[in-house]
Amino acid sequence: MSDENQENGTRNGDVPEIELIIKASTIDGRRKGACLFCQEYFMDLYLLAELKTISLKVTTVDMQKPPPDFRTNFEATHPPILIDNGLAILENDKIERHIMKSVPGGYNLFVQDKEVATLIENLYSKLKLMLVKKDENKNNALLAHLRKINDHLAARGTRFLTGDTMCCFDCELMPRLQHIRVAGKYFVDFEIPKHLTALWRYMYHMYQLDAFTQSCPADQDIINHYKLQQAKGDIKMLKMKKHEELETPTFTTSIPIDLNDH
To answer: Which residues form the CLIC N-terminal domain (predicted)?
Structure first.
């Protein structure tokens, strides 16, 4: 396992240490991989570590070559895995529930808002359909969904989905927006339209957040995540090109519009 020593918060008797095991890059096996759930829970816990209710330790695991101690402890389980005081939580819904009910401060992140929950539901499935089908109808379905999110943000006039402070829904949406932006552009030349200014303003705030930038995978890892999905069963395509391993990681965080004009 690769311990990136990404710690935030304090280490004293009053603050519990939470360890989050996440998938490593499928390119170099060390840096952060492009697992959406890993980033979502990383962001949840990072926000709590910033408030100093916990101390956070993040460990990356190369699932193509998992180390013996990982196999011994977790067998074939894939990250994310949360470890709290020796207790390992292995399933996504259980991790979410544990953060909400058992991690100090976690209940503050999990606000109740059915409108927002419905608003961001199935966004990721529309991206996957667009990447597989590669036709205009799928592009339009994703675009219509993004427009609804844009309209919601414009109507509320807040920095984040439910107000001016982040919640669990933001930690879910933000990684998905980055995948849409990076993978959509690479595979089907899809771009989030500039006229969705409320959405771009939201993404501007997203790129200012340490919780997002510290947890965000490189563009190359997001792209390779979908290359591997598309190449399942094709051994030739699964072989990593040497230049990809040597490439300097890049992170798309630019805003293509001047927000002062809108």
So the answer is: 16-99
